[in-house]
Amino acid sequence: MDKRVPRDFETLRATILERRASLPKRIAQIAAYALDNPDDIAFGTAASIAASAGVQPSTLIRFAQQLGFDGFTSLQQVFRERLRERNSSYDERLAALRAKAEEGAGHRAIFDGFVAAASTSLSDISRALNDAHFEEAVTLLAKAETIYVLAKRRSYPVASYIAYALGKLKIRNQLVESAAGLNAEMIGFATPRDAVIAISFSPYAPATIEETRSIAEQGVPIVAITDSSFSPLAQFAKIWFEVAEADFGGFRSISATMALAMALTVAVGEKRRDAGRKRKT
């Protein structure tokens, strides 16, 4: 491989993100799939990966060559090396719990499986969270006159908690939901003096994406919580957090997302309280 070819996963990821706007449509599609499903890329065959990503196998070769590799196998080695470097204790535990459940170990194994998945998610976000990034989001939200909260489907419990906690902290907020279908009118009141917390994960709720797009066009700064740099939320957000949640039996945890939401909410409350004290002195 050429010296300029990414030799580790983080460099590869950064290279893909840097070039994503210029990638052809199908190659961008496999690039997004690769970042969202790195384990599948590491161990899948070209045929199975292409089928899962919805592209032709030849696209995988073009994707690898676009990044400077001589073929898909060379690119795949970077993904395999990532797995070897990871601390796999939680992953191994989760695999063992899945096996126990399948062997009839009882409902306790299901409970333990979800606990292990939650632990994996929390461990991952603890390692990945950028302190400066987090502080920037807290500062942005603390300055807002009103914080709008957008989420649907699996993300809705997180949004509901954020709105509840902000209310308890006496921070003006608006959870964007309306049985009468008045969401557009609700977000129409938002101004650049406000801020938005938008949450969505693949396959991304269309209503959340459309509402986020609309409010971004109004000049309102957005803090997004999502699962990929290729998420449609990322393109609208001033600040965004990538949260990778583990799953058990196909049921994905929201533990890391909830922890991030709680931390953001409480930190915003602290920031506003500190600012209030300074104004009084």
Automatic annotation (TrEMBL):
PANTHER family of this UniProt entry?
GLUCOKINASE, TRANSCRIPTIONAL REGULATOR
| Protein name (Swiss-Prot/TrEMBL) | MurR/RpiR family transcriptional regulator
Q: Which keywords does this chain's UniProt record carry?
A: DNA-binding, Transcription, Transcription regulation
What range(s) does the HTH rpiR-type domain occupy? 10-86
Could you tell me which SUPFAM superfamilies the record lists for this protein? Homeodomain-like (SSF46689), SIS domain (SSF53697)
Any idea where the SIS domain is? 137-274
